[in-house]
Amino acid sequence: MLRDSIAMHSRNDGDYHMSLKGKTAIITGSNSGIGLGVAHELARAGADVVLNSFTDRAEDHKLAEDLAAEHGVKARYIQADMSKGDECRKLIESAGVCDILVNNAGIQHVAPIDEFPVEKWDAIIAINMSSAFHTTAAALPLMRKAGWGRVINIASAHGLTASPFKSAYVTAKHGIVGMTKTVALETAREQITCNAICPGYVLTPLVEAQIPDTAKKYDMSEDEVKQKVILERQPSKEFATVEQIGGTAVFLCSSAAEQITGTTISVDGGWTAL
User: Fold this and answer.
1) Domains located in the chain, CATH noted
2) φ/ψ (deg, to 5) at 194
3) Which terminal Cβ of the chain has fewer Cβ within 10 Å, N or C?
4) Cβ atoms of residues 4 and 10 within 8 Å
């Protein structure tokens, strides 16, 4: 009886695993890693997808073609350099529609703050934080016109805590969390939400590629490197997956998440519980 009640509630008030058919999602920095994983999960739920990165290669456009064929949705690739504010805004304008915006683009550099290259600081702040300001500012009028929207910022466990030698990255991710709260308050009376997903370590091709060299550096096996070095601060001792991050994004687009706004969702194996 309880199960029937829940099922009826879902039918009456919106499917909690709603189809995103008819929605268009723009995902920045999405020709690999987390961004591409999120794009696939949104497309699996029925959303049309706009992929993005700073390159403009045949293989970038092929990614969009393959994604469209796999999930039966429309997909295209639009080149835009997320370090440049005008190109961030042009990405949204070129797409012409944006129901779901996933601000994912990011880079990293590790160095003590007194040795941190100024150009690296500027690039990380521009790509990891300022790009989200520009894309969100350009996307909100389109969402308001449509009467519905979702802004999903891919922050990090480093948006809630810190590590040494990552001053620019930690600063940018903390900034993204702060902007998430502000946008949520500005749109609280509308059918628009803004939230941040805060992953811990995610098994992406970039992380996988670093494991053999790290193993050599520490004279460890690759399994030891994963457990003792990379996942040192992740209590589960397991990587999150791009599919899990994408699934969290799909949830934030569902009717079950209509009253979730201005907050962070950690997908970090318990990292921020420490």
Assistant:
1) 10-202+241-267 (3.40.50.720), 203-239 (no CATH)
2) -140, 120
3) N
4) no
Known active-site residue 169: yes
Tell me the two tokens of residue 85.
């504010």
Cα–Cα distance measured from residue 124 to residue 174, given in angstroms and rounded to the nearest whole number = 13
Separation of alpha carbons 43 and 72, rounded Å: 8
Please check whether residue 136 is in contact with residue 149, taking contact to mean a CB–CB distance below 8 angstroms: no
Q: What is the pLDDT of residues 243-263, one digit of tens each?
A: 999 999 999 999 999 999 999
Name the band, by pLDDT with cuts 50, 70 and 90, for residue 10.
Answer: very low
Residue 227: partners with Cβ closer than 8 Å, 6 or more residues away: 237
Residue 186, token pair as written in the block:
């500005």
Q: What is the pLDDT of residues 179-190, one digit of tens each?
A: 999 999 999 999
Distance CA 24, CA 29 (A): 16
State how far the Cα of 142 lies from the Cα of 163, in Å rounded to an integer: 37
Query: Residue 8: pLDDT band by 50, 70, 90 thresholds?
Result: very low
State if pTM tops 0.85: yes
C-beta separation of 101 from 151 below 8 A:
yes
Q: Length of the chain, please?
A: 274
Q: How many CA atoms lie within 13 A of 24 on its CB side?
A: 17
Q: What is the C-alpha separation between 27 and 246, in angstroms, rounded? A: 11
Q: Over range 104-122, report the average pLDDT.
A: 97
pLDDT at residue number 210: 85
Spatial contact of 173 and 159, defined as CB atoms under 8 Å apart: yes
Give residue 2's pLDDT band: very low, low, confident or very high (50, 70, 90). Answer: very low
- Asked whether 159 and 208 are in contact (CB, 8 A), the reply is no
Q: Which of 77, 169, 201, 218 is catalytic?
A: 169
